[in-house]
Structure formats: structure tokens, C-alpha cells
Design goal:
Blueprint (H helix, E strand, L loop, with lengths): L3 H13 L23 E6 L4 E5 L2 H28 L2 H5 L4 H9 L2 H8 L5 H20 L15 H12 L1 H12 L13 E7 L10 E9 L7 E7 L2 E7 L8 E3 L3 E7 L5 E9 L2 E7 L2 E4 L1 E7 L8 E7 L5 E5 L2 E7 L7 H10 L3 H8 L7 E7 L4 E6 L15 E2 L18 E3 L5 E3 L21 H4 L8 H12 L5 H8 L7 H15 L7 H11 L10 H17 L3 H8 L4 H4 L10 H22 L6 H4 E5 L2 E4 L4 E2 L4 E2 L4 E3 L8 E7 L2 E5 L5 E5 L15 H7 L5 E2 L4 H4 L3 E7 L4
Parallel strand pairs: 2-5, 9-18, 21-26
Antiparallel strand pairs: 1-2, 1-30, 3-4, 3-20, 4-26, 4-27, 5-6, 6-7, 7-8, 8-16, 9-10, 9-15, 10-11, 12-13, 14-15, 16-17, 17-19, 21-22, 23-24, 25-26, 27-28, 28-29
Helix pairs in contact: 2-6, 2-7, 5-7, 9-10, 14-19, 16-19
């Protein structure tokens, strides 16, 4: 087999038409005297993060497969079964619906049929990655789970897994349209959230861009990211990906860094079909009856001798996902036959500037996302990305549209140049914490009415706590330091808290007479009045605020929303003013006081003392060990901080443990050379015996710290925990 450098010479001149991504990148690291020259080495640092050094890209990706298998073998293999629709065979009936969805969209079949559409380099990389995994399975038979059986990993599995992972975004949009018709499907999809921001050199202390990458996903299962560094041939980078995926999904190389958050243009539609009463496998189309295509799927379920037979139906618009009376609803996704998701990330991983990242976005393969990019030349860029159909005018495509006429058919796919985007905004910063483009910064030029509304994709002119806090911080800081950037990434301030405390103070003056001599009540009120609004793990007031706001919601029920609308003013930072809250009713004031009395009793009952701390309840941990943590995604209690953590239900000891939220936070300073810091929530390795099983929960996530990436080899060598040489000669 040829080394990748030879492969490059054969293909890249013609394939890239002058935009030669690899030849423009930096050469392999280290002088000729480097003791690792000619070797493929995996260093593990103080937190168990693999740093891969190899002479060629191929050797490096082989090592990525090996290192992933060392850390997360079972989750990696599960990811592939999720893509092929075989989870029920391994784990039982509870996965039958997920497998059915995977078969409806035929992720694995589409991957096999369209694999040749991928550029040759990407196909080759996938094959090498699969080889690395199969070699690991063969050489570590005792680690192979029984449910995997005798399967072999192939390159199509990575494509199928990537499709299955990103399907939640476009399919989620389709389900939103379906619900507008009052129809609920019998399956659901995961929707995700994230933070990101980019700061221009003119507003940083280092005269270089700073980028935040901060996806909010589950800490367990399919969405749990895996961290690594790589220096292999022309490929250099640091960041995170999913087990089973070879390229960096979110992170940086030597020249660019990229971030993504949920939100984007509308990429999917629901078509309402009128069924033939005499033959319900036919639907009306342009004055005639058209046949639904029948597909039958055999899905093996663990413990059952025979496979389940599942029948699904396809219209020319797409598969039928729901029925109601004489109507059927077909989902049409712009990604139905697409397989080049990884190819977009090929461009990102090898890019030397923003223009080359945009070439990856131009493939129209990325799911609906807010994409932000920064590079070492000093530019920052945003695109509201997605594969967007060109729709005819005169129809509301945010609801099911008439599928009986060709007048509603798509007219093609928008070029990425049609999408909302901006380079180097004059504000010198931009953020997107799952909010629309018109509130990304004060005076945003990205307005909804500039283009078709489906390119905007959602209702304009609103924000929430995270978005409001991000604007507040970035708009007020004219010279952000790297240390401040890390602080902003992990910020636990509950913006808007002061309006609620002011309302409570006024309510107590009017209705608090019954509690005048209640010492515990007065202690809690005094603590809240002195609170600075930060939900630090050590804060006693933050815990009281949590219990109080929870009690307000309980007492008012549905009417709590009315109170929220009066007191919350998350648009204040964007509108350069703070509106006075509407007058509260007597009932609302009384509820604020009564809720405080109730919260006081709850603190005493749950903790036996009034000075219990926020971190006594809110924890980060794994198995039987946990540690206190600050921040959270407690939107109902008005405590949705930039440091996003979704907590599980209250345990018998009244603790709530984190299970999602910030999963792979990265702060990247695009100086030359690049500097970066990361913070995952738990640990790198899934083996309970590993020192890296939950070390980052204790050492980083609990105290609210980030670790340096030790991206340069000279930095790494002072922090090597172990090293391993692989036989990766091709």
C-alpha cells in the first residue's frame, strides 16, 4: 500500500482544483532526530488523553481507532449497531423503535449504495480506521462483548452511524411540523443544545481571536464525546469526536477552530397525503392515485427465535411516519440519501483558513447548525448552516403541506452562499446559545426578513438566560483575556435574579407580616437579599433561591408563566435598557411570600440546617462517588447558566446528579501557535479500574477548572502518563 503522502500527489491536484488542503498544511512535527520519527506512538497525558504521533495521516487514523477502542470499546460498537439498526438484537425489545427508525431511513443501505460519492481520501481513511478497529478486536478477544458476536467493522458503519447521530436535527424539525397538525408520532428524537461564541482580535488582550466550543449533550451513551490530539503527517488537531468517528468533530487544528450549536434553517417538511378510502395503500397526487411503496423489515430481538416483521410505507415525498383518519403524513428530509457528512469534517480538519472550512460547508451535509469559525489570520465567521430545500412560495412549510399536488414540490437545494452568514461583524464578537441570528449580538445585521423565512428557521427576536448572559459579558468586555474567556465558559451567574429578589422584597413588605417573627424565614430572606446571583457550589443563597423558585412554580401552577413574563427581561442586554416589570397582582405577591415560607421548611426538612450549600444538592459523579458542582440548566427555577448542566431527579438523600450539559467544553486562543483548554465532565476511560474513570469529575468539573491541552509536544513531554508504540505500517 502507498503512504498517504504519495496518495496526495496522485489525487489532490485534480480533486481540489488548486485548493490543496493537505499540501498547504504544516509538515509533520519534530526534527529528523525526533526519537518518534518513523513510529506511530500514543502518549497518554495526566488525564489519560491520547496524543497520537505518526508519520502519515493513515497511520494516525489507525491509532485513533486503537485509542478509541482502549477507552470506549463497548460504546463505540453500540454506535455502529445504532446506525445499522441492530440494537434490539443485542439488547432487547426496548430498542425496537430505534431500530425501526434506522431501518426506515436505511442508514446502512444508503451508506453502501452511495459510498463511492465520498472523495477517495475519505473512503481510504474510513477503511484504515475500520482496519484499526478490527485489528484491536482480533488482538483483544477478551474485551469483545458477547453481543457483538462475530461481526466485522466496515467503512459503511461509520457513515451509517454518522447519519443516525445527525438525524435528530432534521427529523426533529419534521416532527415539529407534524405536531402543528395535532399529530404525535409513536417515536421521538433527541434534541440538543450548546453554547458558542467568537471574539475578534480587536476585543481580546492577545490580539487574536478566541473561540468557545461548548456542546450540551448527554454524558452517557451515544452522544458522549471522546477527546484526543493528533499529529500525523499533514493532520494536526485537538478536540473531540464520537466513538466510532475518525476525524475531529469539534476542535481546532494548527490554523482554524470550529464550533457548532443547535439551531438552523428548516431542512425538513411534512407532506399530508389523502388516502384512497377504497385502497389505503394509495394516495392522491395531481388528480390520480399513486401507490405507496411497501417495505418489510426483519428485526431480530434478543431472546426471540424469530425476527419481528415490521412493515413501513414510502411515498415519493418520503416515508410515512404517522396516520390520522384518512390522512397519512410523510417526512421529507433533505439529507435522505446523503453520505458526505464526514467529508465536511475532512475539510474542517485539514483547513488552513476559514475559506477552506466554508468549502466543507458548501457540501451542504452539515445538519441544521449555527457554525462559528475562527482562524489564526484573525478572522471570525458565522453560518446558519444546513441542507435547505428551495421551496415554492405561497405555502407555510412550518406546518404539514398538501402532498397531493406537484405545486408544493421542492425546487432544488439552496447553495450555502444563500444562507445567513457573516464574516468579522463590526461588533467584534458574536454568540449563539441556541438563539436566532438576530440576537447573536447587539444590533445584529442577520435579520429574518432579509431572506426567505425558512432560511432563518425560527421565530425572530427572542432569547433566553444563556443567550442574554453571553451578550452581557461579551458586549461589556473590550479586552477579553484567555483567563476571562475560561471564566465566561464556566460562568454560573443567574442573569435576571435581581428582579425576582426585588419583587420578593416588595411582596414581603406588603404581605410578610405573618412571618415577621419567624426567625428562619427572616434568615432565608436576608440571605437571598445579599445574594450576588452566582450559583457557586459553596453558595447557601443559591440553594435557597432554587427551593424558593421551585415553590413559586408549585403554588402558582400554570399561572407561574404569567409571573415569569412580568419579571424576566432577557432581551434587556440587547435592547440597551431594562424595562420596569409589570405590576404584580396581590395573588402573585402573596405567592412569592408563601413560597419563601415553604422553601424555608424544605431546606430545614431536607438538610436539617439553613446553611446547606448549593453543592450539597447538585453533584457531578460516577457510580458511588460524587462531588459538588455549581451552575446548571434549571430554566424553570430561573437558574439556566452558561455553565449548562442537566440534573437527574432528586435522589432519596435529596441530591441531584448531573447527567448532561457541558460535555466537551473548549476555549481556543488562535495565536500562533494556538493555545487551548478543555473540560469534559467525567473521565476519559470507561474501565472502572482505570485512573481516568472519573478523575476529571473530581479534579476539573467539580471545582470549575479547565485543563491545558498540551498541544505542542514540548508541553506534552512534561505530562506523560504512559506511551505505547503501534505497528501501523502500510
Amino acid at each position: 500500500m502507498k503512504h498517504f503522502s504519495t496518495f496526495t500527489a496522485l489525487f489532490f491536484g485534480a480533486c481540489l482544483g488548486g485548493a490543496n488542503l493537505l499540501s498547504a498544511a504544516e509538515p509533520s512535527r519534530g526534527p529528523a532526530s525526533d526519537p518518534d520519527a518513523g513510529k506511530t506512538v500514543i502518549y497518554r497525558d495526566d488525564y489519560g488523553i491520547p496524543h497520537i504521533y505518526a508519520d502519515t495521516v493513515e497511520q494516525g487514523l489507525y491509532a485513533v481507532a486503537y485509542a478509541q477502542a482502549e477507552d470506549r470499546l463497548e460504546e463505540l460498537l453500540r454506535n455502529y449497531l445504532r446506525g445499522t439498526g441492530e440494537m434490539a438484537a443485542a439488547f432487547g425489545e426496548s430498542h425496537l423503535k430505534d431500530d425501526t427508525v434506522a431501518r426506515v431511513w436505511d442508514h446502512y443501505g444508503v451508506a453502501k449504495r452511495n459510498f463511492a460519492r465520498l472523495r477517495p481520501e475519505v473512503r481510504r481513511h474510513m477503511e484504515i480506521f475500520a482496519r484499526g478497529l478490527n485489528d484491536y478486536l482480533a488482538s483483544h478477544p477478551s474485551e469483545v462483548p458477547a453481543w457483538w458476536g462475530q461481526r466485522k467493522v466496515d467503512a459503511y458503519m461509520q457513515v451509517a452511524h454518522s447519519r443516525q447521530f445527525m438525524w435528530g436535527w432534521p427529523l426533529g424539525q419534521a416532527l415539529y411540523d407534524l405536531r402543528e397538525a395535532g399529530v404525535e408520532p409513536d417515536f421521538s428524537v433527541d434534541m440538543r443544545s450548546s453554547n458558542e461564541w467568537a471574539i475578534a482580535p480587536s476585543r481580546t488582550s492577545v490580539n487574536a481571536p478566541i473561540l468557545l466550543i461548548d456542546p450540551h449533550l448527554s454524558w452517557w451513551g451515544a452522544q458522549r464525546f471522546w477527546e484526543f490530539r493528533i499529529h500525523a503527517g499533514e493532520l494536526h488537531g485537538s478536540g473531540f469526536t464520537l466513538p466510532g468517528v475518525m476525524y475531529l468533530g469539534l476542535g481546532h487544528n494548527d490554523h482554524v477552530a470550529w464550533a457548532m450549536t443547535t439551531g438552523g434553517p428548516d431542512t425538513s417538511d411534512i407532506y399530508e397525503l389523502t388516502l384512497n378510502p377504497a385502497n389505503r395503500t394509495q394516495y392522491q397526487y395531481d388528480g390520480a392515485w399513486k401507490e405507496l411503496k411497501t417495505r418489510r423489515h426483519e428485526i431480530q430481538v434478543k431472546g426471540e427465535a424469530k425476527p419481528r416483521l415490521i412493515t413501513t410505507y414510502d411515498s415519493h415525498h418520503g416515508p410515512v411516519i404517522a396516520r390520522k383518519g384518512n390522512r397519512a403524513y410523510a417526512a421529507k428530509l433533505a439529507y435522505a440519501d446523503e453520505v458526505q457528512f464526514a467529508e465536511s469534517f475532512f475539510h474542517f480538519n485539514f483547513a488552513t483558513n476559514i475559506a477552506q472550512v466554508k468549502a466543507g460547508l458548501a457540501l451542504n451535509q452539515v445538519m441544521p447548525q449555527n457554525v462559528m469559525v475562527a482562524d489564526t489570520s484573525g478572522d471570525i465567521y458565522y453560518q446558519r448552516a444546513g441542507r435547505v430545500p428551495i421551496r415554492p412560495g405561497g405555502y407555510d412549510f412550518f406546518k404539514p403541506v398538501d402532498g397531493s399536488t406537484s405545486k408544493t414540490e421542492w425546487r432544488g437545494i439552496h447553495a450555502s452562499s444563500d444562507l445567513h452568514q457573516i464574516t468579522n461583524p463590526p461588533q467584534g464578537y458574536m454568540q449563539n446559545c441556541n438563539i436566532p441570528p438576530d440576537v447573536m449580538m447587539i444590533g445584529s445585521p442577520l435579520v429574518a426578513d432579509a431572506k426567505p423565512i425558512y432560511l432563518f428557521g425560527e421565530r425572530p427576536g427572542w432569547t433566553q438566560q444563556r443567550g442574554a448572559r453571553a451578550v452581557q459579558l461579551l458586549a461589556e468586555d473590550m479586552s477579553v483575556t484567555p483567563e476571562e474567556a475560561i471564566g465566561y465558559a464556566l460562568d454560573v451567574h443567574c442573569i435576571g435574579y435581581n428582579r425576582w429578589i426585588a419583587a420578593l422584597r416588595m411582596a414581603d413588605q406588603e404581605f410578610g407580616g405573618d412571618h415577621k417573627n419567624d426567625a428562619a424565614y427572616r434568615t432565608v430572606l436576608k440571605d437571598l437579599e445579599a445574594w450576588d446571583g452566582f450559583s457557586h457550589a459553596g453558595s447557601t443563597a443559591a440553594l435557597k433561591y432554587y427551593y424558593w423558585r421551585q415553590a413559586v412554580n408549585t403554588l402558582l401552577g400554570r399561572e407561574a408563566r404569567s409571573l415569569d413574563n412580568k419579571l424576566n427581561d432577557f432581551m434587556a442586554a440587547l435592547l440597551k435598557g431594562r424595562a420596569k416589570p409589570d405590576a404584580l397582582t396581590a395573588e402573585q405577591k402573596q405567592a412569592l411570600v408563601n413560597a419563601l415560607a415553604s422553601a424555608t421548611k424544605t431546606v430545614q426538612r431536607n438538610h436539617g440546617r439553613l446553611n446547606a450549600k448549593y453543592g450539597d444538592v447538585f453533584r457531578v459523579g460516577r457510580d458511588d462517588k460524587s462531588w459538588p458542582v455549581g451552575g446548571g440548566s434549571l430554566a424553570a427555577e430561573g437558574m439556566a447558566t452558561l455553565r449548562a448542566i442537566s440534573f437527574g431527579p432528586e435522589k432519596p438523600d435529596h441530591t441531584r446528579w448531573g447527567g448532561g450539559g457541558q460535555t466537551s467544553t473548549q476555549v481556543i486562543v488562535l495565536t500562533k501557535p494556538i493555545r487551548s483548554w478543555t473540560q469534559p465532565p467525567i473521565g476519559q476511560n470507561d474501565r472502572p479500574s482505570s485512573p481516568f474513570y472519573r478523575d476529571q469529575a473530581e479534579k476539573l468539573f467539580s471545582p470549575g477548572k479547565m485543563k491545558p491541552t498540551w498541544y505542542a509536544k514540548k508541553e506534552l513531554l512534561d505530562h506523560v502518563h504512559s506511551q505505547k508504540e503501534l505497528n501501523a505500517s502500510f
